[in-house]
Design brief:
By secondary structure, the chain is of the alpha+beta class. Helices cover 20% and strands 20% of the residues. Strands 1-2-3-4 form a four-stranded antiparallel beta sheet, with helices on one face. A three-stranded antiparallel beta sheet has the order 7-8-9. The protein has a two-stranded antiparallel ribbon with strand order 5-6. The N and C termini lie far apart (116 Å).
């Protein structure tokens, strides 16, 4: 809504008192009909509802509020600012605007799409482009900061257009370390055996391989990136549980039994 300002009269250049004069206070607080008339002129008489009260904004101004009666604006209010100066016999309208009240229905704060997408949201056929300035990636002709990968790319003479930056690797490492296949997971806490000692553990290449690898056990975290300190009950060194096979008993010779 556009504000409505009455500039037909300028207040004289006077020094305001420290306390609001009682006459000015009464004038400002009593300007209910003038404030309502300002809204009616701005938006129509049928858009102004119940009077909600007024508060002082400063020594020479007060805001009157009315319930707004507008489709789609349930809980909103009209706020009309009236002003006056000591010694005046009338007030002027400084502003009339529509504002949300405490029960107003407001649209949620806008979140850009690239901040709304969460892991697992990607479906078959979806396209999720990375931003051109993604800090997780660097151009392929620039050193990635991973000595092993940089050396290999130089020897082969090949390179991808973009590769993981140091920030990208650290971001992934933190996510994997804190995730379902990290050392703090319930599965890992339930065993003393770690993946780095398991025959099914295949380390990743590059610097990430010092901490992470892929599980190749189809009965465990098959195909998942696991922390080297992760562990499960399907470790390659898991012993056979005791008590399997034939029950233990003391043999005896039934040929010496007296059957008579």
């Amino acid at each position: 809504m556009d504000s409505m300002t009455d500039v037909t009269e300028q207040a004289p250049d006077i020094e305001l008192p420290q306390e609001r004069p009682p006459a000015l206070e009464a004038l400002l607080m009593g300007a209910v009909d003038i404030a309502r008339g300002a809204v009616e002129e701005l938006s129509g008489a049928d858009t102004v509802g119940e009077y909600l009260g007024a508060v002082f904004d400063d020594q020479t101004a007060a805001t009157h509020r009315f319930l707004a009666v507008l489709p789609g604006y349930q809980g909103w209010q009209w706020a009309v600012v009236v002003a006056g100066y000591p010694g005046t016999d009338h007030v002027t309208i400084s502003e009339a605007v529509l504002v949300p009240g405490p029960t107003a229905l407001l649209a949620p704060q806008w979140v850009p799409w690239d901040q709304r997408v969460q892991p697992g949201d990607l479906s078959p056929g979806d396209l999720l482009a990375t931003p051109p300035d993604d800090p997780r990636l660097v151009p392929g002709h620039v050193s990635s900061g991973d000595p092993e990968l940089d050396e290999l790319a130089g020897e082969v003479g090949l390179g991808r257009r973009r590769v993981l930056s140091l920030e990208g690797r650290l971001d992934a490492a933190e996510r994997w370390h804190e995730g379902e296949f990290g050392p703090a997971s319930a599965m890992a806490r339930a065993t003393r055996r770690m993946c780095r000692e398991c025959g099914f553990y295949v380390p990743l290449s590059g610097s990430l391989g010092t901490v992470f690898g892929v599980c190749c056990n189809e009965l465990s975290a098959d195909g998942r990136v696991v922390d080297c300190e992760y562990g499960c009950g399907a470790h390659s060194d898991t012993p056979v549980p005791a008590g399997t096979g034939s029950p233990v008993y003391v043999p005896y010779d039934d040929g010496v039994l007296d059957l008579t």
